[in-house]
Specification:
- It catalyses: fluoride(in) = fluoride(out).
- By secondary structure, the chain is mainly α.
- The two termini are about 20 Å apart.
């Protein structure tokens, strides 16, 4: 799969990832009432874990690694929303929650990506 077909597959997968993100975030907001953007954290951490796994498996996945990594997981995860939510929390004077959201999510997402790379290395 190359050229236009790869680009179309990435675009389609990105749309699916964005729809999954919207759905999961909505379900979490509906079921878990906390003054913290938990949905975004769950989405970014789980996406980092899966992207680590896909990256470790990339050689065996061929062009599907791009479709899954860039498309699906690129549409699913959301750094921009996490950044906005952190700024919003700080503007509201909720500094501890803002710091926990910004730095905490970064640390946990990095750990999840490392775990995904390790697990993918075991499976490869």
């Amino acid at each position: 799969m190359t050229g236009i077909w790869l680009a179309l597959a990435v675009a389609l997968a990105g749309g699916v990832g964005a729809a999954c993100r919207m759905t999961l975030d909505g379900v979490i907001k509906e079921r878990v009432r906390v003054p913290y953007p938990l949905g975004t954290t769950v989405i970014n951490v789980s996406g980092s874990l899966v992207l680590g796994f896909v990256t470790a498996m990339a050689a065996g996945l061929g062009p599907w690694a791009v479709v899954l990594g860039t498309g699906l997981l690129g549409g699913y995860t959301t750094f921009s929303t996490a950044s906005y939510e952190t700024v919003r929390l700080a503007q509201e004077g909720r500094w501890r929650v803002a710091v926990a959201n910004g730095f905490g999510m970064l640390v946990v997402a990095l750990a999840a990506a490392a775990l995904g790379l390790w697990l993918g290395g075991l499976a490869a």
